[in-house]
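pipeline/complex-builder :: batch 7 item 3
reading input block
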Amino acid sequence: MNWGNGYKRIADCVSQDDTQLSSCPMPYGAQISRTNPACLVFLIDQSKSMSEPYGGGNQTKAEMVADALNRLIQNLVLRSAKADGVRDYFRIGVIGYGAGIKAGLGGSVPFNILLPVSRVGNSPLRLETRTKSIPDGAGGVIEQKVKFPVWFDAEANGQTPMCEAMAAAGLAVKGFVEEFPDAYPPIVLNLTDGLPSDGNPQENARLIRKLSTSDGEALLFNLLISSKPVTAEFFPSTEDKFTDTCSKLLFRMSSELPPKLWEAARSEGHDLKPHARGVVINADPTAVVRFLDIGTRVTPSGK
Amino acid sequence: MPASPLPPEWISVTIPKRGNKVEENEDAAVVAPDGLRFAIADGASEGWESGPWAAHLSAAYLSSPPTPIDFTSWLAKVRQSWTPASTSGPVPWYAAMKQEQGSFATLAALELRQSQRMVGWAWRAVAVGDSCLLQIRGKQLETAFPLTAPKEFSNHPALIPSSPSATCPEPKWLAGRAEPADLFLLATDAAAARLLDSSALPAAVEAILDSLRTRDPAALEGWCRNVQTKANDDVSVIAIRIPLTKA
């Protein structure tokens, strides 16, 4: 019988494919659930140099990073929110390092920095109303008022105690893997604009990367914010291009991207080579947002 | 006057993720009272009220299946009649934002009709996203729609949004004929991916035929729970068998 126009005929369709599903669990494949949440730790450089404007604009590097982080936290809360409340798919920690080391979401460094996403969602510092430009559908833009929750304020003061911040992150990660030994491995994202002032953090970085769950070793990703509007270098697989010490240091401290994040970065248009590392050099505001997005591309199973 | 054909036999199973409550199941699997329309929908885990939206979409298909010609107006009506549960008192910021974003779900649906000019049955299907329809003849996969292989599944399937301002991905449409004893399976993603694994299909067919024969969903439910050992997802399957003989 004829069902009318628009339906494909069976003969036009492909049928069976014998691709096999893997029966072995892969590393970095743990499902994220309320019983096995994902751990995300953000290390934010709050040194004096972060008060410099990015690319000669009005916004400082510190403000740009704070906006990106607040937007990401908002996104994590929204991904976890259900009609019955926010489900604890994530533990989130923020460590600011500058004039001191502090827990950016409240709590105390280092043992009390990881908060369940439900607690984070219910306790922003304030709810700002911001103006967003959106297309009007006729080639122009209109301004729309939107709510913008703020958890983390921009701050720029003092030096760059990255070693101390990494050591604090290591302790937080250690506590997490002991509590959730089968969870997706913790992800630590370090955002900085320069060299550490308190020594070489490579050993602290190595100690973080050695901490593991049954699903794999903890992941450490790094991002270097540029003061100048130059092209960002995403997820390199070698340090050959880098001529400065800071880029080389961040590259050496960074974990290789696991398969799903590698695929996520590639699907965002990055030309990735095998063994690409989770590092972005010369990041502009867009690169910061993309780094945070790809570096935290872990999806709750809904449980 | 030709005798009326026997109606198709069907059996349906939908189970929530391991560790979740029944009411947390965001899949919907529904069958029309006449046993000729079937729909399955998978509410997006990160959406708002996705389970009820999946139920609303699939129920709307049963009462009035869309065609390629009228899908846009059909969806407009479905969205208009969608009333997600409202909360009393102040709404947290995240609830307000999620409500504004709306709900999302996949859909795969099948309609069977006795051929008017030829002996046998005709069918037509619509799908958005990675909920799938499979047609099995003997023990072989005859048709898979809209996805055809496990590797095509991802975390970002096409979804039907509830918000009138959101663009709906283009639905896929397929029509064909069924022979006596053909088996049709509607399945949400985790089950569909397993059914499209050729090495796993025979065990699934065996469980389904067992459930159809005994009219007891236990065997099919056992197979669905086995699917969850590899992918802890809500799992839903509707199995429909075309009758062998006329009454």
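note: The longest strand of chain A covers residues 126-135.
queue -> next item
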